Amino acid sequence: MATEFITTAISGPYNVDDGDEILMSAGALLTSTDDGFKTTAGTTASFLIAGEVLTYDDGIQLFNGSYEITIAAQGSLHANGDGIYTGGALDRIGVLNAGEILSNATAVDIRSTQTRFENSGTIAGQEDYAMYFRNNSSVTGPAELHLINSGTISSGSTTRDAVRTYEVDNVRVLNSGTVLASEDAFSFVSGDVVAMSNSGDIQAGIEATSNSDFRLTNTGDIQSAHSYALELSQGTGFVANEGTMAGILVNSGSSFAFRNSGTLTSVTIDALSSYALTSAIYNSGTIAGDVVLGNFTASDLVVNLGTILGSVEMGEGADRYQGNGAGVATGGVHGAAGSDTLVGGDLADALYGGANNDRLVGQGGNDLLDGSVGVDSLYGGNGNDTLNGGGGEDVLFGGNGDDEMLGGADTDRLSGNNGADILNGEDGNDSLFGGNDDDTLNGGADDDRLFGGSGVNTFIGGTGRDVMYAQSGEDIFLFYDANESATGTARDVVYGYDLGQDQIDLAAVAPGVLSYMGTSAFSGTAREVRLIEYASGSTVVQVDVDADGSADMELMIYRVQGLSEDDFIL
What we know:
Distance between the termini: 116 Å
Strand content: over 45%
Shape: rod-shaped
Structural class: mainly beta
């Protein structure tokens, strides 16, 4: 055990014994055609290097034991081999570098149970990793790494990472410096807990593979030549971004959570469907690209108070998208399979339910809501919204504003609520409720029920036996073709008709102008309209289109008589 001073130029290798304290002063030089400093197994030693170590092989070669290494600001390790290399597994090592560790191979290659490494200088691996940390496989128990960087770490290799860990169970990384690489800046493989905080500049990606728990907090800048700032495979992951990041790619795992108040280019969660990955994304910043959650049966959550400059593609499970305030996804939100709940914010949202039974809520703004297949519930909220139920028995509520609603296939229920709304039942036996203001109700095919509400409403029954209910307002009952209302018990029925206020528009039923016959019989001339008043108090309107003297179209006006030519648009 001795304190050994190196103050001049010497040749190596320099053998270090157990208990030695090596003090290399500024201006001193150690050159070697082999290794620079070399230890033997079972050694405990410390190094303070303020001079220059220049070697053909490794700068410092360490074997089993415990070590402390300090490289001062004016100190350097320049090695053709590794800068610091552990030829055997260590119990513990602590390194403080304020100078330079430059290597044509791996600058720092450490296998240890406990490692603490602080860098405020420069570490560069020219043709390999800049730093490679592995577990001490000869010792039972978890390996630990604490890496603190405020300097520069770089790899000149096109296939190697700047920093790589392998089977290190507990990894803590604090970076406020710069990390550069053509491949990944950091690669964490087969560990347990990886916790990383970055406030610096990382100009290459981060890859985390087969770690039980990965956590990243970023207030700095993380970019990558491979599109993704972070690629996560297997295990759980949590990322909090307040800075700037390129995209995130999650290949597989059990759960992933992301909180963004900064800027991100994209989020892609694209694993095999056999992985039950649950995702939660909270965005109050900017995601300048798509958010793709993959084909999973688990339930995903996206809460968006910020801006997503792309689309949100939910997974296959029962997912939820919640847009709040000014939060918006410019490319729309797509629910895919699963019974999803998609809620927009105050701006214009486009929400697509996809398959199964979905719930879509527009809230503020002029929204587009598309239920697609399944029994869907669509709520427009405020704004001039467009609601499309798609296939399945859907329920559509327009809310405030001038809305346009399409029921789609099957039996749907459409409610315009406030505003001048356009309701289209389309296929199926639909129920349409206009609500307040001046609405247009179009039943479409099949047997529909149309309720006008207050306001000046336009009723278009369409084909099938339709029942139309008028209330206050000067309503129009519009027919485009004689086959839109059959004769006999299959004819359409109007309730609540107001004489002198409402009108029946038959102008498009036949080419040319129709002739009003009152209660007289048909004369055998084409395009005639006549009335039959029944003792029950109802009136049946008949239209002879083809001059055969019989009705081609009928319409019952329930419990109203005394219609005149002024009640018709012919």
